[in-house]
Amino acid sequence: MFYRPTLLALALTGVVLASCGRAKPLEITLTRPLTESERKPVLGATSQERFQFAMPGPATPQPSQATTAGPHLEWDVPPGWTETPHPMRDVSMSFGEGGECSVVRAGGSLLDNVNRWRKQMGLPETTVEDAEALPTRPLLGGQAYTTSLDGSYKSMGAEQAQPEYRMIGVILPVASENASIFVKMVGPRKLVEENQAAFEAFCDSLRIVNS
Amino acid sequence: MANRKSIPLTWENLPTIGLTIITSFGLAASVLALLTLVTLMGTLNQIEEGLIDSTAKYFESAWIVDTVKLGKVVVPVFLPGGYLLLTILFFNILAGTLVKIRKNWKAVGLYTQHIGILILIFSSFVTRHFAWEGNMALRPGMQSSEALHYRNWNLEILPIDGKSEATKALIIPHDQLERIGWKGEQTFSSKDLPFDIRITHAARNSTPIPVSAPMSSQSDAPEVDGFKLIKLPSEKEAERNSAGFYADFLPKTGGDPIPAILWAHLGGNFAQVKPFTFEMEGKKWAAQVVRERMQIPFTIKLDQFLFEKYAGIMTAKNYQSNITKIESGTEEKIEVKMNEPFRHRGYTFFQASFGPQGAGPNDELYTVFTVWKNPSDHWPLFSLIVTFAGLLAHLGWKLVEHLRRSTRLA
Q: Which parts of A15-160 are beta strand (E)?
């Protein structure tokens, strides 16, 4: 019977094509009782409130000084520096040829973050003891760790490291948020040296304002 | 030199050829050599991709399809994965033990050693498929009977009653969500829901971003309420990944779907979840992305957390949790210390860490236990004891044989 293989092939092709289509709905079979603390969920949160931890601030372009209702960050822009809003940062500024300064909030331990910066500068990792022995400076009413790193800077996603760079970082752990505030200045070493005083003034100007 | 026997390749000889291959030392040597290579590559890969992704790619996979950078040259890699190699090794040792070792009491040591190694390989299989690892964070006075998975995020739908409360959650598990991927699509349905849920743009790690931000143009996900979801590369420490999905809630009676971005935020151990809320069929519903939970058949209450640090510096010298285990109406006081976990009914509680980070002298500290459930928890130790006993028996017998021979010669 010559036609049988042809029919078989057609049938198989049909089965294959059918299986390539949209997946069938899956039945939800798992449930769990909610614990006492989960039984009153926060209802009616806006997208902005739900995504607050990811994206502080409103879903519209950030003004030069945040004017969000409630507690928010304010700062003074040092002379000669330009604000360059960035979606992942609370504050983002640039200065000179290749200098930049940012403020972000994120999780992770002090050691993890110091070592992340050291890696960006092409430096070996440090120990928890050395990280916790870093000098401190006042920031936003708390004591923040400070570190100054010289090396070849490779930013996230960059192909090539840039030699003769300096990074100055300030880390303020915030116990209530289980996170830290990071202030970072990075750029060619000479440029960073020239802007050290402006950076200190910027850190001193950071404040949390209720409005 | 003795001639090696060759078996003609015929249909009748296939079982014999198969048995010869599966019991051969050559196969064992090849598998062990490949395992060494895979272990080396998988270990080095952790620098780039972290522990979890490297383990999945190199040790839990059937095949490894990857590239390795040697200087400026990118070399494609195609190798059998750790899972496949260990499966082959298991059957190689099992068949070799049954077929090749002589069947007399002198070989008891050899049998025992091989059984020990088989237990070790089988325990890794049980761990891969049945172990569960999460954490439990407790403030003093708090009690809990559940642990949260470190990496797995589930999507939960909560029916809200007239008092704005919910008593149960319908769960779409993480593995079903992860299978969808960024380009895929999957609809979920339940007889208890007046709507279906269509999920697309599923990412293991993601962040919502305002559409006004320049980065939002990189995402092909639909815009909802001024936001788009952006897929991010997996974090090296997989517990830092924030899963995210685009969802359409489709009324079963027809009508417009309700779109939403559903996203898991890593707000810390006691962060309040803010679910997406919507109304359908005259009733309120909430959808939240939360960590997979494991129910524990007893309750742990934190009575006191003790923290001692070295003088003058912040480094922890010792910390321990004084807990009460509550089970079937009886209470038992237990101390969990840094290297002294608490084990009960197959669950192990390790004193993992404490918080909050950067706490001052007057801040209340909380404890964090790693909760580990592994049916094969002690099997590796047991397998080593069995293997050691086998080696001892075999070497002991060889020594006795040697001494007898020496006595005869004398």
A: 26-27, 30-33, 71-74, 82-83, 91-95, 99-106, 136-139, 142-153
| Within a domain: A18 | no
- Residue A63 in contact with partner chain B when CB distance is under 8 A: no
pLDDT band at residue A210, thresholds of 50, 70 and 90?
low
Are B313 and A133 a contacting pair at CB < 8 A?
yes
By the 8 A CB rule, do B408 and B401 touch? no
Residues of B in contact with A60 (CB under 8 A): 210, 212, 226
Q: What are phi and psi of B367, to 5 degrees?
A: -105, 150
Q: Which domain holds residue A187?
A: 89-210
Residue at A35 is within a domain: no
CATH number, domain with residue A194: 3.40.1000
Residue B122 has φ and ψ, to the nearest 5°, of -65, -35
DSSP letter (8 states) at residue B255: S
Beta-strand relationship, B195-203 and B185-189: antiparallel
- Say how far apart CA B352 and CA B371 lie, in whole Å: 9
Listed in sequence order, the residues at least 6 apart from B378 whose beta carbon sits closer than 8 Å to its beta carbon are none
> Picking from B209-218, B256-265, B371-380, which range would have the lowest pLDDT averaged per residue?
B209-218
Q: Are B189 and A25 within 8 A, CB to CB?
A: yes
**Contact residues for A163 (Cβ-Cβ < 8 A; gap 6+):** A152
pTM: 0.64
**How far is the alpha carbon of B195 from chain A, nearest alpha carbon, in Å?**
12
CB contact A21 to B (< 8 Å): no
Rounded to whole angstroms, the Cα distance separating B159 from B321 reads: 37
Find out whether B225 and A47 touch, Cβ atoms under 8 Å.
Answer: yes
Which among A34, A47, A160, A177 is the top mutation candidate for probing chain B, defined by the most B β-carbons within 10 Å of its own β-carbon?
A47
Interface contact A159, partner B, CB < 8 A: no
What proportion of chain A, given as a percentage, has pLDDT over 90?
A: 26
Kindly tell me if the per-residue pLDDT of A84 is higher than 60: yes
Residue A130 sits at the chain B interface (C-beta within 8 Å): no
Cβ distance of A109 and B357 shorter than 8 Å: yes
Q: Per-domain residue ranges for chain B?
A: 17-130+382-409, 134-143+297-373, 149-294
Which segments within B252-312 are labelled E, that is strand? Answer: 258-263, 276-280, 283-309
What ipTM score was computed for the predicted complex, to two decimals? 0.74
Nearest by CB: B358 against A50, A51, A173: A173
Q: Note whether A178 contacts B357, CB cutoff 8 Å.
A: yes
Contact criterion met (CB < 8 Å) for B214 and A87: yes
Q: With an 8 Å Cβ cutoff, is A175 touching chain B?
A: yes
pLDDT at A70 over 50: no
| CB burial readout B47-57, b (16+ within 10 A) else e | eebbebbbbeb
A68 assigned to some structural domain: no
Tell me, what's the pLDDT at A38? 87
Beta bridge partners of A106: A180
∠ CA B203-B53-A24 to the nearest 5 degrees? 40
- State the residue for tokens 């640039």: A94
A178: chain B residues, CB-CB within 8 Å: 267-269, 271, 355-357
